[in-house]
User: Fold this.
Amino acid sequence: MIKHMYKAARPLWRTSIASLLGIIAMVFGVRHIDAAEKPVVISPPAIDEPKPSSRQETAVLAGGCFWGIQAVFQHVKGVSQALSGYAGGAATTAHYDEVSTGTTGHAESVKITYDPSQITYGQLLQIYFSVAHDPTQRNRQGPDTGTQYRSTIFVLNGEQREIAQAYIAQLNKSGAYSKPLATTVEDLKGFYPAENYHQDYLVHHPHSPYIVINDLPKIDNLAKVFGARYREKPVLSGT
Assistant:
């Protein structure tokens, strides 16, 4: 798992390519190297929240390393918080070292608090599928592999499940992707915030080779594809 190079005592052999590309990028003044997935321009969901609510709502999404997912949604208008954490497993195993074994059932996830009068659940999913990750990759994302990096929508209620499942079917039918989506829909049984050093990681480590290669391109793609929903200054996690 490539990103483990940024914590002590992690295997280094998996990090050589990422490190080399990151060094090249910094030496030659390139903001990012085009190693991340390309954005996919897709239609909004045909089924969405019926009407704006006056209260804050929550979405929980997983799609690879939570550093990039968190960073993307921190730049989305209408989002008041994006918090990195773990979902899919037990509270007792919701710790980075254990989740990283791929045996806990957890996925690295992001809890998104948003204002549905500014952005709907379905519109969040449109960003998620289009620029936040590659939903056709199963149990991996870019350089990171394991069930903890799976593409999963953790739903809080029946309405979210209906929207998510209908949108997956819609996108598969559209032919926008070269192969079927690997995204699963799971009931949210609990969300457990990640350790503080994972929060706002892109903001604190913008020159990290992993971030330069894998995550900064996602922010660029968000601005290009969803300009009306993009905000320059990210909303931080508050942790």
